[in-house]
Amino acid sequence: MNMPAVNVQAAEGSRTEDAAAQLVAHYRRMAEGLPGSAIEAIRQMRENAMAAFAEQGLPHRRVEEWKYTDLRRLMTEAYAPAASGAEVTKAQIDEALGEAARIEAIKLVFVNGHFNEDLSDIVDLPAGVEPMSLAKALYAPADWLLAALGKVNPQERDPVVLVNSGLATDGMVFPLPPGVSVDRPVHVIHVAVSPKPVSSAIRNVVVAGEGSEATLIESFVTIGDTEAQVNSVIELKVGPRAKIRHYKISSENQYTQHLSSAMIDLADKADYLAMDFAGGTSLARHQTFLKFNGDDARGHFYGVQLLSGRQHCDMTLVISHDAVGCESREHVKAVLADRAHGVFQAKVMVRPDAQKTDGRQMSQALLLSDEAEFDAKPELEIFADDVKCNHGATFGALDEDLMFYLRARGIPEEEARSLLIQAFIGEVIDHVEHDTLRETLMSRVADWLS
Amino acid sequence: MLEIKNLHAEIDGEPILRGVDLAIPKGEIHAIMGPNGSGKSTLAYILAGKEDYEVTEGSITWNGKDILEMEPDERATSGIFLAFQYPMEIPGVASLNFLRTAINAHRKARGEAELTTPEFIKMVKDKAEKLNISMDMLKRPVNVGFSGGEKKRHEILQMALLEPSLCVLDETDSGLDIDAVRIVAEGVNAMRSPDRAFLVITHYQRLLNYIVPDKVHVMAAGRIARSGGKELALELEQSGYAEYGENAA
User: Which of A189, A217, A410, B53 has minimal Cβ neighbours within 10 Å of its Cβ?
Assistant: First the structure.
């Protein structure tokens, strides 16, 4: 069935919808050249997504899920999607990555949303481990990819995911065969580099087979003063007894707006742990949609927000317990200076049959200034009767008594503050199971503080 | 030499100290005893520089320097150490890291290079052993999950490592059994020196059997009400603080 053509005029109806209209126009202009355009199912997915997006436009504060992140106000312009072929060197990327460049990994580098094989490191891959470019894969998509793309815990009404479905130019697709463990992390590096404002839309699809194991790291960097809008989506299907560690480090510059979404589906006894580390960008929304689709699975999410100036960072989770005996954890810690604004929203739904669910969420914000703001919105919707769920939130300044204790030992005020903040954030970073990455993140915290 | 003259201080507008006069020469140990609420701990906190208290009158000098204008960390690196009555728990900061940061802050203030890791570990090991503190305990976050006795011994370890010239011990004996009191007292006695002054604050005479003071002062209603030799402590043990405004226990 053909969908009606997207009506650009309608979206342009009012000035406040300029960015939404621009996104639709970008899509119209690019549609024919987007990967998979020759494949009816893919073309249709993109059309449907953009039509659904055009209907609602960018979300605003009267949309409950976006109450604290008024995208209509914060995103007044939709930058043009970047062409491929931007010049950037490995040295520049390594410098932007900092210590994260040292992590021994299978590396896939995407520049402005386009895979760059020369900058990547995908030689000597273990047997069965073949991460590759989505754009390339869509020339002749494998059945598994067609079955997964847009279908892993799908979010058919989320405006950010819809735009990504329409505009995605590339990303990593990674089928991990059953029983295979990858000895090195798979590091997906997204680079934005451009003299003009630029946008990218990246779609990653990972399907981890039964009993497989892998560590995924997603790094987002900008080169120089590039003004970027990044929209990244990962679809991640974790098979029975598979174990996935998933770390996302957003360290773009202050001119960048970062929107990322993870759509995750966990099968029986799947073991998933994620950490989002947010710094840098002027605007960030990290969305995690996590569905417990098999019994006795475990899904943990940890988040770190280090914000200053007028930075805004929103970590929003929607967790659906659809199976028996699963364990979910969400723990976000934020350190907010100046007029920064942090947001944590977590909606946990426990379906009628999801007995023995064990769900806990916690957010803790350290406010270093009177003008900083943190909003926490926990939501529990429980329809099963035998469950254990709770949530908590704390807000506060640094404990003056602790500060005094440290200073009474001769530790100067700045150093004492920094020690306490590192300890505060360290409790979340401790969950990172990769040693070099954990050290990298701790030194990032130290850098941020200095 | 510590000299406190006519010290008045208040918290939230309520006067706590009402004219304290006290002088402790180097090499001496002075004890301050007194009923609860007499201002003993307030005096200790003010010496260390806690900001909750407002000094409204009087002066404190240490080796001739006015310390009231100094930040808590400056006072510490000038040689003033407070062993806390209630040591703080610091989740996420390992004791070893804390000790090292503190030692290096002192070294930096003296213009010395930071300790290397082997130097630091050796230094801590030697002193921790004498206080019956294991290295495993020091790998844990500062005071988190420590027993009352461990916390107090940890305070004395810090004192031993930082080698202050004025040691203020605030109710270090509270909550300790007799064996723990003995270990703590040995730690303190080992540090007695002609260059070092001690102010030992305690509610009970017991500690002073082990740390024998040169002088004993009784604090009551924010003033030094009486001063005497070590025998004053024994007398107080007999008579209690009734005449100083506290009902006999």
Answer: B53
